[in-house]
Amino acid sequence: MRELIARTYDSGFPGAKDTYNGILSASNGNIYYVLSSQAVDIGAQLYCYDPARDAITYRGDLTEACGEKDSRTIVHGPIFFDNGDRPSYVNSIAVAKDGTVYAISRVNDEGRPDPISFHPETAA
Predict the structure, then answer these.
(1) Looking at residue 42, what is its pLDDT?
(2) Can you tell me the distance from the alpha carbon of 62 to that of 67, in angstroms, rounded to the nearest whole number?
(3) Could you give the CA distance from residue 76 to residue 35 in angstroms, rounded to a whole number?
(4) Cys-Cys link to 116, which of 1, 6, 65, 99 (CB 3.0-4.6 A)?
(5) Do 75 and 42 meet the contact criterion of CB atoms below 8 Å apart?
(6) Phi-psi map region of 68: left, alpha, beta (phi>0 left; psi -120 to 50 alpha)
(7) Contact 35, 47 (CB under 8 A)
(8) What separation in angstroms does the CA of 84 have from each of 22, 105, 110, 115?
(9) 30 with 100: CB under 8 angstroms?
(10) Neighbours of 121 (CB within 10 A)
């Protein structure tokens, strides 16, 4: 059995708790992803990882972009089944043109989510 070793990334969003809004491998080669928080006044935050530069850029607050900043609405939302139960954990996954797999997962000491990546063909 091969072992997959994933690289972790730090988005610098200490309030990140969940990843309900996902991740996308865009046609420009960048990886766009959203991290959510559990705070009523901090909405989903959009980030862009540029593999060519190996750099993460903060792109904005989706709550503000939707015109709901400071509305005190619930700005995050887990997935529930019809009976009210929650899945154990939902991970977001995207595959880049070069085959690199990107995902959002809880990987750091604080338990907050951040991106990880690995390439299946170069796995140990």
Answers:
(1) 77
(2) 9
(3) 10
(4) 6
(5) yes
(6) alpha
(7) yes
(8) 22, 23, 27, 28
(9) no
(10) 8
Classify each residue of 42-62 as buried b or exposed e, where b means 16 or more C-beta atoms within 10 Å of its C-beta: bbbbbbbbeeeeeebeeeebb
Indicate the length of the chain as a whole number: 124
Domain ranges of the chain: 7-122
- Whole-number pLDDT of residue 123: 54
Of 1, 15, 4, 26, nearest to 114 by C-alpha is: 15
Q: Which of 100, 121, 110 is nearest to 49 (CA)?
A: 100
Instruction: Look at residues 29, 36, 35 and name the one whose alpha carbon lies nearest to residue 47.
Output: 35
User: What is the residue-averaged pLDDT of the chain?
Assistant: 74
Q: And the tokens for 97? A: 């043109």
Task: List the one residue out of 23, 25, 24, 67 whose CA is nearest residue 43.
Answer: 67
Q: Could you read off the pLDDT of 63-91 as tens digits, one per residue?
A: 787 777 777 665 555 544 456 555 445 45
The alpha-helical segments, DSSP class H, found in the chain are 62-65
